């Protein structure tokens, strides 16, 4: 398999800082930024808006296949649109976070969104972040990163993020949800969360944003 040098695949659990770090890496290298988590969040928002039965995987898949999703770069920020509605902030609520697993565990949903993700990466040099970028979506990417952090650190980051947006957030509740989400993600049959065999593992628990970005940029330049 020929390695792709213009894809940087960044995986890791929720709250490890993937989106923030990946965007900064993309800006540093002049690459496009693909926030796959936002895609799954938008799909979840769409399913909720259409009152789809979460016990019906086929109905969820059918709904997501007609999802009018558009991701735009505006003023240095990724903005997410579903049809005529901008949902950039709507998809970051606790309600979406608590429900997203019921959508992203549907195999047909993942297959459809993987197609969209690969099409995005085929158009331009891309920093792609998610949970299966290096193992499923871009398995032949030359630069693969697995970004991790202690659950307690990730819970604190998420709590601070929500509170900064004026939303209620309880640290212990969020910590329990992160641990449960980690377990589901690592043990599911379809595209489980795990580092690719050739991924470089980076623990951001005690790192600043700049330190994490610099580490990935060094690795990207080394493997180019």
Provide key terms for this protein:
alpha/beta; 224 residues; single chain; globular; 10 helices; five-stranded parallel sheet; Rossmann fold
Explained architecture:
The chain is of the alpha/beta class and 224 residues long. The protein has a single domain, classed as P-loop containing nucleotide triphosphate hydrolases (Rossmann fold, 3-Layer(aba) Sandwich). It is built from 10 helices and 8 strands. The strands form 2 sheets. It has a 5-stranded parallel beta sheet with strand order 2-6-1-7-8, with helices on both faces. The protein has a 3-stranded antiparallel beta sheet with strand order 3-4-5. Strand 4 and strand 5 form a beta hairpin. Helix 1 crosses helix 10 and helix 3 packs parallel to helix 6. The chain is globular, with a radius of gyration of 17 Å. The chain starts with a strand and ends with a helix. The model has no long low-confidence stretch (mean pLDDT 91).
In CATH terms, what is the fold-level topology? Answer: Rossmann fold
Calculate the terminal CA-CA distance, rounded to whole Å.
16 Å
Please tell me what the overall shape is.
globular
- Strand order within the widest beta sheet: 2-6-1-7-8
Computed Rg = 17 Å
Fourth-level CATH superfamily: P-loop containing nucleotide triphosphate hydrolases
Low-confidence stretches: none
SS-based class: alpha/beta
| Order of H and E elements | EHEHHEEEHHHEHEHHEH
User: Count of helical segments?
Assistant: 10
Helix share of residues? 40-55%
- CATH classification class: Alpha Beta
CATH architecture: 3-Layer(aba) Sandwich
Total DSSP E strands: 8
Give the integer mean of the pLDDT values: 91
- Tell me the number of structural domains: 1
